[in-house]
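Record Ribokinase, 303 aa.
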Amino acid sequence: MKKVIILGSTNVDTILNVQRFPQPGETMAMNSMAVAGGGKGANQAIAAVRSGAETTFISKVGHEGAANFMLDTFKEDGMNIDHVTTSETAGTGQAYIMVDENGQNSILIYGGANQDITNEDIQAAKGSIKAADRIVAQFEVPIPSVIEAFKIARENDVQTILNPAPAIKNIPDDLLSVTDMIVPNETESEIITGIKVTDEASMEASAKEFFKMGVKAVIITVGDRGSFYATSEQSGFVNAFKVKAADTTAAGDTFIGALSSKLELDYSNLEEAMTYANKASSLAVQIKGAQNSIPYAKDILAD
Ligand code: RIB
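=>
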């Protein structure tokens, strides 16, 4: 069983189901709305723990208790939340997610307590980071905290996986220099490398750019097509499973969390772990919402 640390956001998602996205200046009725647990970090942590990883989550929630229902889910799933702390000043992060009738989404984020994660919080989790096999982080928490965590990981031979979402154009060199694997989607990849991801040749070219930045392994996810991988020894494409999407929210998070639970540290089972992660996200997109849609290992293996 892999020991996985996820450093990342906890959000309350307000999901607005619409027929189509409104035009600027347009007022439109929505089909339905719902509130559910979300946040890229929390979603990835749930995907990892439900796939059997011994998972520790580092995050921050608001003092108003809006995240309590999520903390209960984390505990029920057996996640270690000793390093999910409470902000004295900010409320729990929020996401407003429009989902259209094709299952595509558009998301607005209020960072809230997620933005209060400090390097002191990371230092407090140092023992857990040192004891892990790998750490995974995204960009919904302050970048200095990700750098601090990845530096501790690198000093202790703990593998680091960066999901650069939401994308930023210039990722600091001192973060890239301590990143083992990067997992962007096609849009994030283009923002970071400047190369438009269309076919496998453009994915190869993008991977080369990431290698130049100092990263050792790359996975570029391309939605319902699947995902491309490249290391110094191997590269290839793993097809997605064809399903009808009801809501693609957290599809990428499910992929990364499931992958982090299965991937060997030497990448020797990369294709197998990606196939497993693709299965997990193909199950997630068939159900509306983020955390409620994330499957357990038994469902993924039975599918
Ligand atoms: O990746 C999906 C997640 O992005 C949502 O759950 C939302 O909270 C935002 O963080």
